[in-house]
Write a structure and sequence with these properties.
CATH architecture: Alpha-Beta Complex
CATH class: Alpha Beta
Number of helices: 8
Low-confidence stretches: 14-27
Distance between the termini: 30 Å
Order of helices and strands: EHEEHEHEHEHEEEEHHEH
Mean pLDDT: 92
Largest sheet: 7 strands, mixed
Shape: globular
Strand content: 15-25%
CATH superfamily: Spore Coat Polysaccharide Biosynthesis Protein SpsA, Chain A
Oligomer: single chain
Number of domains: 1
Radius of gyration: 18 Å
Amino acid sequence: MRVAVILPAAGLGTRMGRLPAEKTGTSRKQFMLLDGSPILLHTIRKFVACPPVSEIVVALRQEDFDWVAEMLRREGLSGLVHPVEGGDSRQQSVENALAALSPDTDLVAVHDAVRPFIDLPTIERVIQEAAETGAAIVGIVPVDTVKQVRRNMIRGTLPRERLILAQTPQVFRFALLQQAFQRAREDGFTATDESSLVERLEQVEVTVVLGSDRNIKITKPSDMDLARLFLEEQQAALAGA
């Protein structure tokens, strides 16, 4: 079974705002530094360590190609990780990456480049689930009560037992994901995740593998403090293993 991973990393990180360069290295979240390495590299390392993964494709802005290629060379990953040019949206970046995959790919896992704390057992579980069902995502059950509102007025309370907060990786059969993107392009439909595109096909039921609240998406300045804490704990656990 050939499994490819797509990491969309062409975003401008507008929600992160402007942070001091000496603390982050950049204002673009995927390239901010954690323990001296860009967040993107921490994420790549997780998938490199995952045995089922055959190749990793990173969707980048053109101006980032050279230095990312050098980073991969220093890590000895040039043969496994391949950059492709991303688009102006996440959806376009993932579609560009899909076009670059080997035609004998069986499953495609799409993962946020700024979720560096995904754990290997979860990656392997969601890949195995998708191998069996055709489509699976990682998600967690919300702990807060969720309200439906219109303007600033509550219109209903949604039952938590029927809700999932979607995370990544999201894993699909290659042909199914290709078809979902083609349909979205024909319809002019834009989604915030790949599962939404596959759901529109109504061909398979997308299943959920429970993840962890540590699988955070680093999108705002306060997330960096939590990321540093998680990284320290992760390194301490590895040192004690």
